[in-house]
Design a protein that fits this description.
CATH topology: Alpha-Beta Plaits
Radius of gyration: 12 Å
Largest sheet: 2 strands, antiparallel
CATH architecture: 2-Layer Sandwich
Strand order of the largest sheet: 1-4
Number of helices: 4
Number of domains: 1
Shape: globular
Number of strands: 4
Structural class: alpha+beta
């Protein structure tokens, strides 16, 4: 088992989870984060830190493996991020929205650590 980030993170990207990760397995895209499944040690400390419940065990909300595949793919090409940056100013406007992957996903890498 590993933890994964779901589409609830898209356009919110609050980053509270990054501060508590003991192995720095988060990677940053332009408008969301992903977890590298091979680096995640399944400790679960990031899950309760996410204010919008965008982090779950891969066995819980990813029956078809879609989000595990997305986390895996983009963790390989996006930069690692180890500290909390500034979340989007309008992130709270997107908290309750569903279907964000189809509407807003941006495969562009984020800035990562300086």
């Amino acid at each position: 088992m590993t933890y994964i980030v779901l589409d609830a993170c898209i356009k919110c990207k609050f980053m509270d989870c990054i501060e508590v990760c003991p192995v720095d397995c988060f990677y940053e895209g332009a408008n969301m984060l992903v977890i590298h499944p091979d680096e995640c040690i399944d400790c679960g400390v990031c899950e309760p830190e996410c204010p919008i419940d965008a982090i779950v065990p891969d066995s819980e909300d990813d029956k078809d493996g879609k989000w595990l595949a997305i986390n895996t793919k983009y963790a390989e090409i996006w930069p690692n991020i180890t500290y909390m940056g500034i979340p989007p100013k309008d992130g709270e406007d997107f908290e309750e929205e569903t279907g964000k992957f189809e509407k807003y996903f941006d495969p562009t890498p984020g800035k990562g650590d300086p």
